[in-house]
Amino acid sequence: MIHTKIMATIGPASWDEATIKGLILAGISSCRINFSHSTYEKAEETIRLIRSVSQRLNRPVAIRQDLQGPKIRIGELEQEAYPLPLGHQILFTRRECVGNDSIATIAQPEFIEAMQPGGEIILGDNDLQLVVTEKLSADEIRCKVTIPGTLKPRKGACAPGTLIRFKGLTEKDVRDFEFGIQQQVDCVSMSFVQTADDLKRLKEIMASHQVQIPILAKIEQRNALEHLDEILEHCDGVSAARGDLAVERPIEELHLIDKEIIHRANQAGKFVFTGSGILKSLMHNSWPTRAEVCDVSALVLDGIDAISFSDETAVGDDPVGCVRILHDIIARTEEAMLSQGTSTAEHGFFRSIHPQFPVTPGTTPLLMTADSLEPVARIAKMHYAAPVIVGAQNPRLANFIAHYWGIVPIYCPSDLSQKSCMDFAYQEAVRLGVVQNGAPVIRLT
How far apart are CA 323 and CA 325, in angstroms? Predict the structure, then answer.
């Protein structure tokens, strides 16, 4: 088994039962439902299918609801594209209009409000860069193109270096999250988290429904980095959202930011993952690039809990093949990393590969039961080198802990005693090939 977990976004390429089963058997521990795109009808159908397949296979799989958050986008345009040369001037307004190369709508009120002369604006994935030259009113700014490109409708906009105070969850987010509560999602990702205060509204909604659902905060803006320790204190985990961070911060800092988020999350005992096109070339190719393979290995060595696919498994040509390749890269890196100087590689070449985080040595698996997240998270953050088998009678707890580094969750029948639950978990671990029948384990009681 691999210690570093794999998360998959479910979309048109992976909606069918055969593909979901293939993804689970290939090694995923979590399915992301992106509420920027999914309808309630499709989400409910997908959640039901994932639950059915994972329970039939007796493999816990977390369902993660990803809330859209405030989307800062260019409005509709008269044409599908307008090339804007260097120095070209354009007005951005909060007013709804069908724009052109002279004026376009950015309807999110907080965005125009925050922008001041000298502020930088980036459209799309660095498709076009501009600077604010004049603030005409609270509703309108004049900008000049500093890096030419193409203006397209519905493209995202961001403002690196400008503090934009979004007003918490959008109305859509609230409706979507209440739907997620009804569907009993295992965890929820909140977009555009800037401070711990942004997480309060989610907790208030949970309290009104008398539920507790783990919250994962997406770290994608400069001010979130500045309040990272406070955010970690008030959530269950964080995502290093590299796609957005890549335009929020200088690109040469991206890997350093990644490492810092992973390190501080591990220090705080919180779950941490990343994604954003991790093996993007596999969307339409059968082999990853060398840079992608090295990126995955670096994340494993840094001590990340999980690596998440986005478009690769949602709309790519071969979702299951993507998971198998990522699984193999992780497995080979961990083999060298956890070998403790006894690598089987030819000539012992990999004996000097060491993780960038403390690993607790051990070859005998741990076996425990759990009825809450805290003890499991604490054990996971020890980064014990052998598998940690956890029997859980709460299916949603079993699903969520499937995210964590080194944890092997096992569904246990609700009517078992603690000892019987532990025995049941051991036999299931044997069935899954995690331990050999009769092999010793360390029982944690």
Answer: 5
Q: State mean pLDDT over 398-420.
A: 96
Strands annotated E in 342-426: 366-370, 388-392, 407-411
Q: How many CB atoms lie within 10 A of CB 342?
A: 8
- Summarised one tens digit per residue, pLDDT across range 289-338 is 999 999 999 999 999 999 999 999 999 999 999 999 999 999 999 999 98
Round to whole Å and give the CA distance between 363 and 58: 25
Q: Regarding predicted confidence, which is higher, 174 or 155?
A: 174
Burial class (CB in 10 A: 0-12, 13-18, 19+), 206: middle
| Nearest by Cα to 329 from 378, 291, 382 | 291
Counting Cα atoms < 13 Å in the Cβ hemisphere of 291 gives: 5
What's the pLDDT score for residue 349? Answer: 66
pLDDT score, position 346: 52
Classify strands 388-392 and 407-411 as parallel, antiparallel or unpaired. Answer: parallel
Pairing relationship of beta strands 82-84 and 128-137 according to DSSP bridges: unpaired
Contact 294, 255 (CB under 8 A): no
User: Any residues with CB less than 8 A from the CB of 195 and at least 6 apart, and which?
Assistant: 223, 224, 227, 230, 231
- Cα–Cα distance for residue pair 371/352, rounded to 1 Å: 39
Is 290 in a helix, a strand, or coil?
Answer: helix
**Whole-Å CA distances, 151 to 8, 96, 109, 120, 321:** 31, 17, 20, 16, 35
End-to-end CA distance of the chain: 24
Q: How far apart are CA 311 and CA 136, in angstroms?
A: 39
Q: Which residue has the higher pLDDT, 341 or 228?
A: 228
Amino acid at 297: S
Q: Could you give the CA distance from residue 245 to residue 236 in angstroms, rounded to a whole number?
A: 21
Backbone angles phi, psi at 333, to 5 degrees: -65, -45
Give 286: exposed, middle or buried? Use CB within 10 Å, 0-12, 13-18, 19+. exposed
The single-letter DSSP state of residue 196 is G
Which residue reads 């594209």 in tokens? 81
Residue 348 in this model has a pLDDT that exceeds 70: no
3-class DSSP state of 297: helix
Structure tokens at 410: 């096992």
The number of beta carbons lying within 10 Å of the beta carbon of residue 372 is 10
Backbone angles phi, psi at 44, to 5 degrees: -60, -45
Q: What is the pLDDT of residue 72?
A: 85
